[in-house]
Write a structure and sequence with these properties.
Elements (H helix, E strand, L loop, with lengths): L7 H21 L37 E10 L5 E8 L4 E6 L13 H7 L3 E8 L2 E9 L8
Parallel strand pairs: 3-5
Antiparallel strand pairs: 1-2, 1-4, 2-3, 4-5
Length: 148
């Protein structure tokens, strides 16, 4: 039994198709570009907000207060929270800096780690200051409705 030899062009085109399929599979299984940092309560978070977080100036239309779920905490420990990012109900991710909290005794910044872990929403009151959105009050969103 003799086999009929395949033309070289047919073998090359088959290999090209296989290479393209493999390349597509590698791209499809690669890391997502929309991943957020969600450190646990005992992890040390970086001071860099995720690249998709919206800084203050481009959030000019954003009114205070806002409600959302934490996606990242900028901290060097529970007592040293510098800021955080929040995913709002409409899907936007916004970066905040913590200022002097008017309710820091009843909602210490370290409590944010619990909200990050449980995905319980928070209500954030803030003021634009330069290029930052500076938080002056944080509440459990489920505790009470936002004032009008």
């Amino acid at each position: 039994m003799s086999r009929t030899p395949r033309p070289a062009a047919s073998v090359r085109s088959g290999l090209a198709v296989a290479a393209l399929a493999l390349a597509g599979l590698v791209v499809a299984c690669g890391p997502s570009s929309t991943a957020y940092s969600t450190p646990g309560p005992n992890d040390q978070a970086s001071l860099v907000a995720p690249a998709s977080a919206t800084p203050g100036p481009s959030s000019a239309a954003l009114g205070s207060p806002v409600t959302g779920v934490l996606t990242h905490i900028d901290s060097s420990g529970l007592a040293a929270v510098a800021g955080f990012t929040l995913r709002l109900d409409d899907g936007r991710v916004v970066a905040f800096k913590i200022g002097t909290l008017e309710n820091g005794a009843s909602f210490p910044p370290g409590h944010l780690a619990e909200h990050l872990g449980t995905a319980e929403p928070v209500r954030v009151y803030f003021r634009p200051q330069g290029t930052d959105l500076v938080v002056y009050r944080i509440e459990d969103a489920s505790a009470s409705p936002a004032p009008s």
